[in-house]
Amino acid sequence: MGMTITQKILAAHAGLDKVVPGQLIEANLDLVLGNDITTPVAVNEFRKTGFNKVFDTKKVAIVPDHFTPNKDIKAAEQCKLIREFSYEMDIENYFEIGEMGIEHCLIPEKGLAVPGDLIIGADSHTCTYGALGAFATGIGSTDMAAGMATGKAWFKVPPAIKFNLKGKLQGWVSGKDVILHIIGMIGVDGALYKSMEFVGEGLSSLSMDDRFTMANMAIEAGAKNGIFLVDDKTIEYVKEHSNREYKVYSPDADAVYEKEYEIDLSKIRPTVAFPHLPDNTRTIDESGDVNIDQVVIGSCTNGRISDIRVAAKILKGRKVKKGIRCLVFPGTQKIYLQSLEEGLVKDIVEAGAVFSTPTCGPCLGGHMGILAKGERAVSTTNRNFVGRMGHTESEVYLASPAVAAASAITGKITDPDKI
Amino acid sequence: MENIAPDLRRKTMKAKGKVFKYNDNVDTDVIIPARHLNTSDPKELAVHCMEDIDKDFVKKVQPGDIIVANRNFGCGSSREHAPIAIKASGISCVIATSFARIFYRNSVNIGLPILECEEAVKGIEAGDEVEVDFDTGTITNITKGKTFKAQPFPEFMQRIIKAEGLMNYISEK
Ligand code: SF4
Question: Which of A75, A255, A324, B69 could form a disulfide with A67 if both were Cys (CB 3.0 to 4.6 A apart)?
């Protein structure tokens, strides 16, 4: 029985020739990541257990992004704690305000994730780096503490589901619509404990940004990881961003998949996830009249340069409807600067939208864009749980940057083709 | 909030208490909303545990009580604050049809026992008194006089839970 991409990476990092689903292994880590919410808990555990150095000062990354720029005194204390820890431990990849970004936009951009890596992050959307052909998965603070101390983590080898992509995306349709479509199809626990592996000739038409968006939301189907077959586009991206060595893994011809789906990209329509679960999806054609109060464009799902470009293209020369708040959050400082240089910020601000410093802020109802009781938002983020962006009686509709920007102009959920 | 469980180092691998019951897909945003994540103090987190889905939880929970839920319990964020809040609120065990995987890992790693058992979930109602034996995976509904059998933890995870968490386990190793 052959191995999947994921199983091969796990075997290689556990020093084994072969692994099978269900097997418990201990594997070596290439990167251990944490943010300002999860790292303080990890630091306490790390210190309590008596460790005084991290296993490798190059292989730990700490990114304050959730409640930063510090939203209140408690958040400031948490950030101070992780800043001091990072300095004390000589952690090279600690990113202060000014050089930071939302962790899952930042890590690939800084070249800290490459094909074949095994990465754990104390943030559920760590699965984003699967776009690069790495095994990357979210864990909690205690795993982060143990990972920082020992450079190892325990895993149960997952079975996998294969998504065979064919065809080409049409019009405004993007990776976000593809992954929403898939989650709608298999459900929020449709890939529970499993790998989602994306292969097929359709891959070549997906940009790296599309792939990051798709891998990002693997967790919304309950998956352990989402991973893409490495192709020329991946290699080009990696060479541009990193000089680390990488290793490309492909599935064996006789690799076993629990299920296989064929996805025709050319058939996918702009897709919206209605409250209060990411699998509650409808195509834009079935969405009906939904009036909104706020639009959020950004996050680790859709805060990359191509997302900002799409938003600017739609907003340019138009006006955000009176009474609607439209907030645009670039994923990193580099994307911020690029947006400035390309004139995108001007288009966005002239349309009457806000252009913010990189932060998770509104995505998790943290700060800078909280919803009041009864309010509705269209958001390019990844979760629409009860209370996610504010009041428990507010509503979040997940969509692509194109749908979100179009909706900002009309004040209701709108097909970007119809404005 | 007086009902914070003492930090039991688990000598007996057993739990007993009254049941709080929930449905599918209880996510980490309702277990502990992000607005409270500017702290990591278990006692402070416990005060807000489940507040967006069950306002009475914190008022009613007693040390030893048990949460029973349907599918995909703990989905969403990787915040360990979720199992920490549950554990600090006094809950001794969570039984569900299935768990989201990061929640599962985090619970094992902090020493909060959790069990998957669909039959038990079907055969237990809110308010029932339930006893769980982790060594054997036996779940007894004392109120209804029924017994169910969950898969016990693999030995590796039993060792982590017995050590009261991963960090103790690796430092003992
Ligand atoms: S942008 Fe949202 S989903 Fe992404 S890391 Fe930040 S809070 Fe989490």
Answer: A75
pLDDT tens series, chain B, 173 aa: 333 333 444 456 789 999 999 999 999 999 999 999 988 899 999 999 999 999 999 999 999 999 999 999 999 999 999 999 999 999 999 999 999 999 999 999 998 989 999 999 999 999 999 999 988 889 999 999 999 999 877 888 888 888 888 999 988 87
- State the amino acid at position A418 in one-letter form: K
Looking at residue A206, the DSSP 8-state letter turns out to be S
Q: Do domains A5-264 and A271-418 have the same CATH topology?
A: yes
C-alpha A411/C-alpha B6 separation (Å) is 52
Separation of alpha carbons B28 and B30, rounded Å: 5
CA distance A47 to chain B (A): 10
Decide if domain A5-264 falls under CATH 3.30.499.10: yes
Q: If you count DSSP H runs as helices and E runs as strands, how many of each does chain B have, helices first?
A: 8, 7
Is ligand 1 within 6 A of the CB of residue A300?
yes
Would you say the CB of residue A382 lies under 6 angstroms from ligand 1?
yes
ipTM, two decimals, is 0.89
CA angle A278, A206, A268 (to 5 degrees): 50
Whether domain A271-418 has CATH 2.60.40.420: the reply is no
The span from the CA of A405 to the CA of A398, in Å, is: 12
DSSP assignment letter at A125 = G
- Measured CA to CA, the distance from residue A228 to residue A234 in angstroms comes to 9
- Rg value, chain B, Cα: 15
Q: What is the pTM of this model?
A: 0.94
Amino acid residing at A123? D
SS3 at position A31: strand
Query: How many Å apart are CA A61 and CA B83, to the nearest integer?
Result: 24
A362 DSSP 8-state letter: G
| Distance in Å, alpha carbon of A23 to nearest chain B alpha carbon | 11
Q: How many CA atoms lie within 13 A of A276 on its CB side?
A: 20
B25-49 burial, b for 16+ CB within 10 Å, e for fewer?
Answer: bbbbbbbbbbbbbbbbebebbbebb
Give, for B120, the enclosing helix (H) or strand (E): helix B118-122
- Chain A touched by B78 (CB under 8 Å): yes
* Cα–Cα distance, A166 to A266 (Å, whole number): 8
Is A332 in contact with A106 (CB distance < 8 Å)?
yes
Distance of alpha carbon A24 from alpha carbon B11, whole angstroms? 25
Which residue in the block uniquely carries the two structure tokens 């001794």?
B92
A224: nearest CA partner in chain B: B101
Q: Where are the domains of chain A?
A: 5-264, 271-418
CA nearest to A213, candidates A114, A307, A338: A307
Sign of the C-alpha dihedral computed for residues A335, A307, B79 and B149 taken in this order: negative
Q: Can you tell me the distance from the alpha carbon of B61 to that of B68, in angstroms, rounded to the nearest whole number?
A: 13
**H/E element holding A419?**
none
3-state secondary structure of A265: helix
Q: Which residues pair with A270 in a beta bridge?
A: none
CA separation, residue A364 to residues A43, A67, B40, B69, B142 (Å): 22, 10, 17, 24, 41
Residue B165: strand, helix, or coil: coil
Give bridge partners of residue A31 from the DSSP assignment: A119
